[in-house]
Design brief:
By secondary structure, the protein is α/β, with parallel strands linked by helices. The protein contains eleven helices and nine strands. It is rod-shaped, with a radius of gyration of 31 Å.
């Protein structure tokens, strides 16, 4: 049928009819659409005039809750499909024009040394997607993922992933001792945990994954670390060691970014402490947004062959 032969009907008219079918009365339908009852009637009359058919019962004899005629009942599924198709046409280019937002939480270590650069490169490749990055400790990330639907994913080093979350591995970090330049331990050919047990150590705060890894290793060797100070993040720890306040045991990225240009010495500890595994946490069984899936795939592409946990 040529377009010129089609009846001229509007989405407002069809929406008035569909809402009448849903609500069962003109008054309720008008309230739902935020129009006057007379305005709703005008739309329905115009629709019936265009289609040349009676779609709903009028007058005192209309049965409450069932206002549609047989023709109206036949028209209803088509009218609903018409509105759905109109919505699809309206939103056809919305995803290209409207920025999409992903809420991501990460630990401070990963924000400083991994995520800032990753988000910058992701935005260059996908300017239509905005990543809102917030800083939390591991326990807060897990809790918020389970209780805050606005948070789409976390990037962290969980000690033990929650049963309600899925973990996708990205990379692992080995542990090293950092000490002020010239410290005698830096001249040792080989370091063991027993060499560190009596040293004043600056460790991560209690409750963090990093602190748990270190204390597990010491206790497993029958030793107790001498904790002189605690700090919330690696940047502060490195500065404290640089100032001569003690030694520390920290996980380090292979690129040396954490201690670059710092007046500290570094000695790797090998497999004496279980590596820190960092990755993506998401809610188990949830359908993620297209933007979130795209960001996850981007992060995974940076570490295409991650080590298994």
């Amino acid at each position: 049928m040529p377009a010129s032969a089609l009846p001229s009907i509007t989405t407002d008219q069809v929406a008035a009819f569909v809402e009448l079918a849903r609500q069962g009365s003109l008054r309720k339908a008008a309230e739902a659409l935020l129009v006057s009852e007379q305005g709703l009637r005008n739309r329905l009359v115009a629709l019936e005039t265009r289609l040349k058919i009676e779609l709903y019962r009028k007058g005192q004899g209309a049965k409450p809750g069932a206002p549609l005629t047989a023709a109206g009942l036949r028209f209803l599924p088509q009218a609903t499909a018409f509105l759905e198709r109109a919505a699809e046409l309206t939103n056809l280019f919305a995803s290209e024009q409207t920025p999409r937002v992903i809420h991501v939480a990460a630990t401070q270590y990963l924000i400083l040394y991994v995520m800032i650069d990753a988000v910058r490169r992701f935005h260059q490749a996908n300017p239509q997607i905005q990543v809102r990055l917030s800083n939390r400790i591991e326990a807060e990330i897990e809790y918020d993922l389970l209780h805050n639907p606005d948070l789409e994913l976390g990037v962290a080093a969980p000690y033990e992933a929650s049963a309600g979350l899925d973990y996708t591995h990205l990379f692992s970090m080995e542990w090293s001792v950092i000490a002020p330049l010239g410290h005698p331990l830096l001249r040792r050919r080989k370091l063991g945990l027993e060499d560190l047990a009596d040293m004043p150590l600056i460790l991560f705060e209690r409750g963090s994954t990093g602190r748990q890894h270190v204390t597990d290793a010491f206790f497993g060797a029958g030793l107790s670390p001498r904790v002189e100070m605690e700090a919330t993040n690696t940047e502060i720890i490195v500065r404290m060691v640089e100032a001569g306040l003690g030694l520390s045991i920290v996980p380090l990225l292979a690129n040396g970014a954490v201690t670059h240009d710092r007046q500290v010495g570094v000695r790797a500890l090998g497999n004496l402490i279980r590596p820190i595994h960092s990755g993506i946490l998401t809610r188990r069984g949830e359908q993620r947004s297209a933007a979130a899936r795209q960001f996850i795939e981007f992060l995974r592409a940076d570490w295409p062959t991650p080590a298994r946990r």
